[in-house]
Design a protein that fits this description.
Rossmann fold; 2 domains
């Protein structure tokens, strides 16, 4: 059984991510946790009347139940069960607390919430979660993205870092479970791989088994973000995977949120594997 955490702020983007999640795991037994975080600080609590606070909590619970009823109606799947979770704290703290209490395998959420700031490639909540959650992977679903089966998956790596068994297993599971083809792409900075890169590549080749795998070395002809975007479009990629570790491409993207500056705006689902070394 899989345990999937679905943060929601009741936006359309959050709903799209929930729909994607139930379709992705259509044939698996899953418990989905619908989590809504409504942060109430000590100062705000002191200024709120008991009646207002009670109404706020009741409204959030009602909205969560409405989302649950809606997804259960549209996803009549005996393999799936849904639970609602309301926490009156910041989203990052709420997610960490829920993971500490429950064996969560994956977080699935939208790129943006209610703010829908078009200048950000991820919304602030998504960025904060990616930066702070180091326990389980986060699958990020673009705004208004319609589900389609995962047939082509790309794992982008600079091969400068050793990948752990758990990180490799996550890539294996997504690829094998969806009967997909995996493409490992390295943006070639130098003419030849350094010895450490060759070693890390050999570890990946040994670990990535049970499905078709292709290894691509792409010339560094442009901004790395644009190279990845072009690769995604040219090969009809359905899922992008990166590991978020110190000095990685992923970390740099997170620190440069403006699309115009880095040219990174994933048009497909994006799996971020945390650094667990």
């Amino acid at each position: 059984m899989k345990h999937i955490l679905l943060p929601t702020d009741f936006s359309d983007n959050a709903w799209s991510a929930i729909v994607y999640a139930v379709k992705l795991y259509k044939y698996e037994v899953c418990t989905f946790y619908l989590l809504h975080a409504n942060p109430l600080t000590a100062s705000s609590l002191s200024n709120l009347s008991d009646v207002y606070l009670k109404n706020t909590i009741q409204q959030c619970k009602r909205q969560l139940e409405e989302v649950k009823d809606q997804i259960e109606s549209s996803d009549a799947n005996a393999n799936h069960s849904f639970e609602t979770v309301l926490k009156l704290i910041d989203l990052q703290v709420a997610v960490k607390a829920h993971i500490a209490e429950n064996p969560i395998d994956l977080i699935i959420m939208g790129t943006k919430g209610t703010s829908r700031n078009k200048q950000l490639f991820f919304g602030s909540n998504t960025t904060r979660l990616v930066n702070t959650i180091k326990i389980c992977p986060i699958l990020i679903i673009p705004d208004q993205y319609d589900y389609k089966p995962l047939k082509q998956i790309v794992f982008s790596t600079d091969l400068n870092r050793f990948y752990t068994d758990l990180e490799i297993k996550t890539i294996n599971d997504f690829t094998y479970d969806n009967n997909a083809t995996l493409r490992v792409v390295n943006i070639q900075v130098n003419d030849n791989l350094a010895p450490i890169q060759q070693y890390n590549l050999s570890i990946l080749q040994k670990g990535l088994q049970g499905f078709k795998t292709h290894y691509h070395s792409v010339p560094n002809y442009n901004k790395k973000a644009e190279i990845i975007n072009t690769f995604i479009q040219d090969l009809n990629i359905d899922l992008l995977i990166m590991v978020n570790y110190k000095h990685s491409i992923m970390e740099r993207f997170l620190n440069e949120p403006v699309i115009k500056k880095i040219g990174f705006n994933p048009s497909i689902p994006f799996l971020v594997i945390p650094d667990n070394q």
